[in-house]
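Amino Acid Chain and Its Fold in Token Form
===========================================
What this section holds: a protein sequence and its matching fold, both as plain text.
Structure line: whole-number tokens from a learned vocabulary of local backbone shapes, matched to residues.
Purpose: to set a sequence beside its fold so the mapping can be learned.
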Amino acid sequence: MTVLGRRAPAVTGALSWLMSPKRLEGLRLQAFMVPIGVVFAVLFAIPLAQSLYFSVTDFNGYSTKVNFVGLENYRKIFTDPSMLAGLGFTLLYAIGTTVIVTVLAIPLAVLLNRRFFGRNVVRAVFFFPAIPSIAILGLVWAFILSPLGSGAINWLLDAVGGFGPVPWLSDGTLAQLSVIMVAVWSSTGWHAILYLAYLQAIPGDYYEAARVDGASARQAFFRITLPLLAPAVTVSSLLLMTGGLKVYDLPYTLTKGGPGYATFTITQSIIQSGIAQAKFGQASALAVVFMLVVGAIVALQLVLSRRLEGRLS
């Protein structure tokens, strides 16, 4: 009876702790994490595990017989010229669009933040290129930048100055610049609106105090505006970098990855190897390597952005 009598308070205490409001609140909060965990497992963890498995096999996507090939698929990645070209252009595209859009979007946001007649219309005009599908924009710009004389820009150059057709999409370097230019044109307005939202959150008293102290517009921009936009730069550059690293639709619709492999991207290489060429194992290996590269670049970017925020603030 003594033992039972001693156990009864212990059991009662445990039950009261389990049923306490604090514990119940913790269980409710953990319950909200269950759907997130399920989504993470279904959309990321399980596909990643499958990709890791297929990357060391010769699986072609159809056959039920799978042979272990070790790191052979990874070796082929770094010896295939199309994949190396795709990696090079993907990095060039991601870094180029991130830098150029950031340099253009911040001054544009400052201009759009001023009061002038038709300001809302001008904002809508700059934001419009971000509304249509980028694949549709690629098809439209493929006509505009056509290397033939019938292309819109070449026709205009011939009508105005008598210039011959410029090989915008048939020359490797010009094709790369054209793809980046179209991406910058379609993204600058959207990111300018993002910076504009942060600009409107800056108290006007800061600028009034700067004017009283005799600060010029340039000094106010570098001492007030730019430091307070540091969090926006982090968000914008992260969106640009991640979007640039996984780009597929714009280069494909604009140049089909050509000429040659000049505008070939990693995602296009993954799709072409896995679906068109039935090299599922090789495509999985490329996807794994690409995921590691993207993770390293994004982590480095976040570290540099945080340091930049600390220096500006």
Remarks:
- Residues 154 and 165 are 5 Å apart (CA to CA).
